[in-house]
Design a protein that fits this description.
The chain has 88 residues and is mainly α. The chain is built from three helices and no strands. It has one domain.
Amino acid sequence: MRKKRQAIHRVNLSLPQNVVYLVQMLAERDNVTLTTKATELLEQGLDAEEDLILVEMAEDRLEDFEKGKHKPLSSDAFWKAVEKDTKK
């Protein structure tokens, strides 16, 4: 699957030399530019951060459910709500 191209914005970063060295080594290993590798690593870090946030949200919802703040929804009720929303 090919990613859709998005507008590119330039961001200037000041990085410690050891970080630049490590990113450069990874870029050479993968035969890509330093900028490409830095972008890939930043995207991976953001994905990992998003995963942590989603886990926290799921744990909070589970805790609320276990405390009785929310009631379970039957499969039929769920799909009826989905159908209703898709018809709007």
